Amino acid sequence: MFNINAFDVQSIITLIKNHPQYAGIITYFICFLEAMAVIGAFIPGVILMPCIGFLIGLSFISYSSTILFAILGTLSADFLSYFIGVYFQDRIHLIWPFTRWPYLLIRSENFFHKHGGKSVFLGRFVGPIRAMIAMVAGMLKMSLLRFSMAIIPSAIIWSAIYIIPGIFIGSLSSEFSRTIIIKIVIVMVSIIIFLWISIWIIKYFVQKWNKIINNHMKLIWVFLCKNNKIPLLLKILSDKTDQTQYLQLKRFLCMCITSILLLSLIYQVSCNGYFISYNQFPYNILHSLRPNKFDDLFFIITLIGDTTVIIIVATFFSYWLYKNKQSYIAWHCIATIGITGAVLVCLKYFIYLDRPGIVSYGLGTSAFPSAHVALSFAFYGFLAMIISKALHSDKRKNLPYIIFTILWFLIAFSRLYLGVHWIEDILGGLLVGISCFLLVSISYNRQYIPCNMKLKNLTYIILGILFFVWVSYIIIQFNNQIENYRVNKNIPSMIYLRKIINNF
Is residue 315 scored above 90 in pLDDT? Predict the structure, then answer.
């Protein structure tokens, strides 16, 4: 947690405040120096970036252009550091300052060897490693494609993580006293720490028990095969000659559990059960903290999960697969969209749940479940599975799923932030997406068909189609649709938050 009083003494505030027209350039160079190899180790980005965010929150400088310059500055330094590593390679050890402080490189190299391709993404958020990992990746001959796939999302997330807290405090400073702001920051940091610890514990137990569960599934699968008691669905979708087909049983059981949870949620929604009572609290919190300056950013993010965008991407990608004699993958890609879409249509037809109603988007249509959340999980999860299967190294197979999870989380949060869904709509969309993804995954993995495409070409095609369709849709539909996400009710945004703070 950074010290709020530091904002009053930082010279960067005075500089940018007095020259707002140069805010983007100043931000660019701050982020460039902070991410540059060696230099970044001595630049206090953890203080400077929230300072910039604080000025954005006070409306002294533009948020969109400033964040863009922050991302560009970070990426410029990353790629320059990477190519320096490629050029010098092992000779870097013989160059000052590494001859004087060799631990700078040794620590980063050990981190890279331990985490593989993930180190480029993770290293951004590790203090001592942050300024060196890009150069080490080039020095150790990491491919430019893999480096780009990891460094670009990490730069975007890093910029948001360091700037948004400052924006948050700057926006609140006009509404609350410094004492109350400190209290809010303490609560927010406590929540983040709690979530981080929870995720770490879950990851630990998943890794610890995964092998045990797989071994038991294998024994159960052998037993079912010997006694001819395999469920009908698995008989259709499994290949008994493949020894790894016991994983199909694991997927099938996960799908059954997810489907049961979905049916329970549907029952609660249709009967106005206890889930309904939990809708208002998270919605009011987000609405209280929603500054209008973030609307454009989250609207752009939410379009990645837009039904039209996903359908167009799936169509182009399936056509490309079919033309390259990968019809097996193409049909499963189409099935992912078709099955998920059919489930969504049925649920929205038979179950009607009013939207929050603070924006014009989707008025008159059922909010439950979220189509953006369901389709993005099923489709992008399928793409992650395709890329993961094309990877030869087991250490890197989780990387596509990590990137996909971050992308899905941003889409889901954008739906809550923009006020078009309740929390149960997001949960319903998640369960629909998981169930449909697992069903398609069972079908896809029923037999091993080697992919004749190179991983590089496959990744370029997926990212190229997605980026082209997404950007084109933003350009065409931005002005037409952004107004549908503007708050159309004059509700004092801080009333609910004031009540919570007073009670606290």
Answer: yes
Which residues lie below 8 Å from residue 143, measured CB to CB, with a gap of 6+? 456
Non-local (6+) Cβ contacts of 54 within 8 A are 7, 13, 166, 167, 169, 170, 173
Alpha helices per DSSP H over 445-490: 455-481
Alpha-carbon span 109 to 121, nearest angstrom = 14
pLDDT (tens digit, 9 = 90+) per residue, 405-461?
888 888 988 888 888 888 888 889 999 999 999 999 888 887 766 556 676 677 778
117 CB neighbour count, 10 Å cutoff: 21
| pLDDT band per the 50, 70, 90 thresholds, residue 216 | confident
User: 386 vs 91, 182, 312, 447, CA distance in Å?
Assistant: 38, 46, 18, 14
Contact 491, 287 (CB under 8 A): yes
Return the exposure string of 324-345: e unless at least 16 CB atoms fall within 10 Å of the residue's CB, then b: bebeebbbbbbbbbebbbebbe
Cα separation, 350 vs 370, whole angstroms: 15
Q: Residues for the chain: how many in total?
A: 504
Question: CB within 8 A of 62, min separation 6: which ones?
Answer: 23, 24, 56
For the chain, which residues make up each domain, given as ranges? 4-174, 278-503
SS3 letters for 75-114? HHHHHHHHHHHHHHHHHHHHCCCCCCCCHHHHHHHHHHHH
Averaged pLDDT for residues 462-477? 87
User: 3-state SS of 214-265?
Assistant: HHHHHHHHHHHHHCCCCCHHHHHHCCCCCHHHHHHHHHHHHHHHHHHHHHHH
Q: Are 377 and 385 in contact (CB under 8 A)?
A: no
419 backbone φψ class: left, alpha, beta (φ>0; ψ -120 to 50)? left
269-277 — which CB contacts under 8 Å span 24+ positions?
269/351, 269/353, 269/368, 269/424, 269/428, 270/351, 275/424, 276/424
pLDDT > 70: what percent of the chain? 65
Q: How far apart are CA 358 and CA 420, in angstroms?
A: 8
Q: For 150-178, b where at least 16 C-beta lie within 10 A, e where not — what string?
A: bbbbbbbbbbbebbbbbbbbbbbbeebee
